[in-house]
Description:
Blueprint: E1 4-10, H1 15-28, E2 32-36, H2 42-48, H3 53-56, E3 59-62, E4 75-79, E5 86-87, E6 96-101, H4 110-115, E7 118-121, H5 130-145
Parallel strand pairs: 1-2, 1-6, 2-3, 4-6, 4-7, 5-7
Helix pairs in contact: 1-2, 1-5
Amino acid sequence: MRGYFAVGLEGVSKAMNLGAVMRTAHAFGAHFVFTLGAEHRAREIAHADTSRTQDSVPAYHWQGVEEMRLPRGCQLVGVELTDDAVPMPSFRHPHAAAYVFGSERGDLSEDLLARCAHVVKIPTRFCLNLSMAAAITLYDRTLCLGGFAERPVRPGGPHPAPPHTWGAPRKRT
């Protein structure tokens, strides 16, 4: 898969949620993770982040939106249930993206939404668990940009092409 992505959380207050999202980001191959205004203790994060993401993936912890620095060309994608958000099945993921999720009991701040190049929503009737929303978003990115074959028309997986067999030699006359 070309490009890179990051996962960020704004205002997360539960260390277990932060750890679960970090583990999910690590599993999907995130290039860095970040928090904005988060309250957490590293020891508590380890209970959910059994992959020890911070040992393998850079983690940035900023106090607020104004401190956040993303690489040049990286598009900030807010994942939020807003009326004008693009439903995720209709969204084309950028090659260089930083996905940001809101806190457990709140929405993304107006300042952060203003910095987002895109705002997408998972088409559900109500909010999902924070780590579940991150997992669905990264799975969708993987499906769209992972270089997988198109889904078959019939149920089941793709059927591999039979191996090529060489015919008998042809003689020119």
